[in-house]
Amino acid sequence: MAADLVIKNGWVVTPDATFKGGVAISGEKIVAIGADDSLPQGKEEIDVKGKHILPGLFDGHVHFREPGMTHKEDFATGSTAAVCGGITTVVDMPNTVPPTSDAEQVKVKKELGEAKSLVDFGITGVVVQTNTKDILPMAAAGAIGYKIFFGETIGNLPFPDDGMCMEAFDYIAQSKLPLGIHAENRQIMAYCTNKLKQENKNDARYWEASRPDICEAESVHHALFFAETFGTKLHVFHMSSKQAAYMVRDAKARGLRVTAETGPHYLLREPNDMDKVGSLLKMNPPVRTQDHAEVLWQGLREGFVDTLATDHSPHTLDEKGSDIYGKLTKPAIWDCISGFCGVETGVPLILTEVNKGRLTLNQYVKCASENPAKVWQVYPKKGAIRLGSDGDITVVDMDKEATIDVNKLHSKNKPSPWHGWKVKGMPVLTVVRGHVQMRDGEPCGKAIGKALKPLV
Q1: How confident is the model at residue 1 (pLDDT cuts 50, 70, 90)?
Q2: Distance between CA atoms of residues 222 and 80, nearest Å
Q3: Is 311 a catalytic residue?
Q4: Residues 304, 385: contact at Cβ < 8 Å?
Q5: What DSSP assignment string belongs to 2-52?
Q6: Coil, helix or strand for 100?
Q7: Which pLDDT tens digit goes with each residue over 296-323?
Q8: Could you read off the pLDDT of 411-452 as tens digits, one per residue?
C-alpha cells in the first residue's frame, strides 16, 4: 500500500547519526525510515537530491501577537514566516491583549491558532501577581507550560512577588508542566536605566548597560532557588549571559530539572553592533559581548544550553523607532520598543555557523528539534524521525547561499537586524504532519496547525 508522502534520496540526520535514504509518511505519522530501496511507494514522492532531511525544526519561543495585537503579527502571518524559515512547531508566548492568564484565554488562543496556523503550536499561560489559582485550570484547558516575566515586558505585566512565587512554583510543580522565565531583575534594571538617562546617555549603544549581565544572573539564581525548593521544572528563556549559563550547568549537575535556551542574536551579535543597526537589535535581554557568546556556544555543544529559539517578536517600524536599515527615528533608545522578527531567519543563520564548524549538523538537530520537544514534553511525538512520530520534516540545502532581505520576509511587520547578512545553508522544504507547507522558500500549504498536548 502506497504511503501518502515519501521523501527520498537525501541524508537523514538525527542527533546520533547521519545516513543515506529517506522517510515515508502516512496518516500524518512517520511509517518508514531507511535506504531508498526499502521505502514504500508514495502517492507523492519528493526527490531531495542529496540534501539533508532533518526532524521538523522547533522554535520554542515566538510572539504571534494574537489576540489583541494583530497590527504587529497574527497566527496566519507568523506561521507563514515559520514554515518559510523551516520551522514546523512553535511555542507561543502569553503577553497578548488580554494576556493568556486563565483557562478561558487558553481556549481562545487554541481556537485562533487552529483556525489560522500553518504549524503546530504550544500555548503558554502567564503567571502574574493575581492568578495563581488559575494555574491548574490553565493546564486542564491545554496550556503546555507557563511563563513569568521577571523582567519588564511588552504589556508591562505585574510579575508575582516572592510571596506569591511560593504559591506559583508549588502549583506549577503540581501541574507537571515547565515554567519558563524571563530572567531580569527589575530593581537593577531601573537603577541602571535611570542612571544612564540622568547622564544623557541615550544612544543605542547604551542599551546593554541598562540591563547588565548581573541583572539576568541574579534573576536566574533567584528562580533556581524557588525551583529547587518546590520541585518545579524550570526553563530559562533567551539566556544571554555566561554567568546564567554556568548556573544552569551547575544546577543540572545537582540533578535539577532545569533547561535553557539561547538565540542567534546572542551568539552572533554584540552591543557595538547597535551603532550600525540601532534599535533594530534592541531586545530584552540585550545582546552582550563576545565572551558571553563563546560560553553559550560551548553550552550548545556540551549540553548545558539545551535549545535554540528566536524570541520572534515583531513590531511596526514606528514602534521600533527605526527605518528598515537601522536609522533611528526617535530621539533616544529608551523610546524604541524591544523585539524583532526571527522565526524566518534563525535557521539559515545557524546553518551558516554549522558550515563554519561551530556545531555539527547532528548537534544542531539536537538543539533545534529534539531538545525543544523534550523541554515542552512532546517528545517523541515531535522532535524525532522515528516510527510513529508526527510526520514533521525540514529539508535543508547546506550549499545554498543567500543574502537576507527583510523586504522578502513573510511576517506582517519585518523589523530585523539581519538585513544584508550573507548565509549559507537554507531550508528548502517544510512538512508538518505530512502536509507540505513550504517549497523552495515559498509557502504552499493551508492552516492545518494543531495545539500541542504535553505527554505527561
Answers
A1: confident
A2: 38
A3: yes
A4: no
A5: -EEEEEEEEEEE-SS-EEEEEEEEETTEEEEEE-GGGSPPEEEEEE-TT-E
A6: coil
A7: 999 999 999 999 999 999 999 999 999 9
A8: 999 999 999 999 999 999 999 999 999 999 999 999 999 999
Pick the closest to residue 423 from 357, 345, 370 (CA basis).
345
Q: What is the pLDDT of residues 219-229, one digit of tens each?
A: 999 999 999 99
b/e code 33-66 from CB counts within 10 Å (16+ = b): beeeeebeebeebbebeebbbbbbbbbbbbbbbb
444 — phi, psi (to 5°)? -145, 10
What per-residue confidence (pLDDT) applies to 153?
63
Rounded Cα gap, residues 239 and 69, in angstroms: 25
pLDDT at 294: 98
Mean pLDDT of the chain: 97
Cis peptide before 285 (omega within 30 of 0): yes
Cell of 124: 503558554
CA atoms of 166 and 354, how far apart (whole Å): 42
Cα–Cα distances (Å) from 148 to 95, 183, 321, 329, in that order, read 10, 8, 27, 32
Q: Which residues are bridge partners to 258 per DSSP?
A: 234
pLDDT category of residue 156 using cuts at 50, 70 and 90: low
**Of 49, 58, 17, whose CA–CA distance to 33 is shortest?**
17
Give whole-number Cα distances, 155 to 68, 218, 233, 343, 444, in Å. Answer: 11, 23, 26, 21, 34
> Can you tell me the distance from the alpha carbon of 437 to that of 446, in angstroms, rounded to the nearest whole number?
7
CA distance 393 to 83: 11
Q: Looking at residues 230-241, what average pLDDT do you find? A: 98
Alpha helices in 366-410 (DSSP H): 371-375
Using CA atoms of 433, 439, 440, 441 in order, give the dihedral in degrees to the nearest 10.
-70
At 152 the pLDDT is: 66
Do residues 21 and 39 lie in contact, with contact meaning Cβ atoms separated by under 8 Å? Answer: yes
Q: Which of 311, 390, 392, 397 is catalytic?
A: 311
3-class secondary structure per residue, 166-195: HHHHHHHHHHCCCEEEECCCHHHHHHHHHH
- Here the cell at position 48 is 531531495
Q: How confident is the model at residue 155 (pLDDT cuts 50, 70, 90)?
A: low
> Can you read off the three cell numbers belonging to residue 83?
514554515
Of all residues in the chain, what percent carry a pLDDT higher than 90?
Answer: 96
